[in-house]
Amino acid sequence: xxxxxxxxxxxxxxxxxxYALVMMTVLxxxxxxxxxxxxxxxxxxxxxxxxxxxLIKSIQNIFKENRIKACVLIFIILFTFPILEAGNPYxxxxxxxxxxxxxxxxxxxxxxxxxxxxxLGYAAFYAIGAYSYGILSTHWGLSFWLCLPLSAVIVMAxxxxxxxxxxxxKGHYLALITIAFGLVVYQLAVNLEKITGGANGLxxxxxxxxxxxxxxxxxxxxxxxxPFHANYFYLVMVLVALTVFVVSSLSRSLTGLTxxxxxxxxxxxxxxxxxxxxxxxxxxxxxxxxxGISGAVYAGMIGFISPExxxxxxxxxxxxxxxxxxxxxxxxxxFGAVALTxxxxxxxxxxxxxxxxxxxxxxxxxxFKNDGLIPAKARKFTSEWxxxxxxxxx
Length: 394
Prior knowledge:
Blueprint: H1 3-27, H2 31-51, H3 53-65, H4 67-78, H5 81-84, H6 89-114, H7 123-139, H8 144-166, H9 172-191, H10 193-196, E1 209-210, E2 213-214, E3 219-220, E4 225-226, H11 229-252, H12 254-264, H13 266-271, H14 276-302, H15 312-325, H16 330-345, H17 354-368, H18 383-393
Antiparallel strand pairs: 1-2, 3-4
């Protein structure tokens, strides 16, 4: 068996196993069984890591060497989800929200993980993106595809305004500024009734269309008719793929390394010639873009938004996702976002304790596993790497 085929089969087996675990979590109704399955999967991985570290290491190397193939394959597998759940649009809706949360968690990770800028008001960017599309489409009649980049630009402008006072502070004071920013956006959404609809919300937001085809129309694939949620699922999957590609490319670039240096020690980074003002502003702006895009998609899908959709609790949720998965770890952030979207849906009976659940996760991770369940790996730059980059640049 050729090495390429062997590597492909290993990647396929691991991804199908992970996909089967997600499907089992979705389909099983008894939450005790869900907990048992998830704990069993964790114990199995932990046991393999202790007894067969060489096996785990070889699998990690295969995924590292075939990163693009692995990403393409997992997205192909995920595209079957609406077909498997064609009779249960509820879980397709949950999967859509998981995709939107992945985008926002990756955006927040740019600020917190890459650049080390504490942000506890990320839900504000989510709100600005949603209201941008809602207002532009209902008041001005602009299409979804035009509003999507416009929402990103508007959110970027607001993030730059937030970044200006944030340049002067760090740590706890920066966290307070971002909290205040989130509260200001929330109050504006409540009080600007003629523009945002106030506490009653903004209604009749048009759905995205492609020509004459509305995304609120069931999707007919010929052999099966999917609920209209499938349209948004596929749209979100494409956006998630683009987000992962852009964020991972940025993280591996010189800009990502610069932000990492700023995160570790701002004074040392400044001594090496790094412009802290410039980099902080762009970290805020770039990270906020994904919140704005997610908000626009959410508004188009639901058709109604209100201030209650963007409370401070959502900012804590997004922060919990990156803490659970691993700060500055893209696979970890994706895992944390998906886990904290799907698992709470299985515990709807305890919905009143959801915020407490997120708080317990944050405290437990900080105390016992402060690098997250899938920690980020330190990048090593050898003379061979430097030589190769010099040849490319030449």
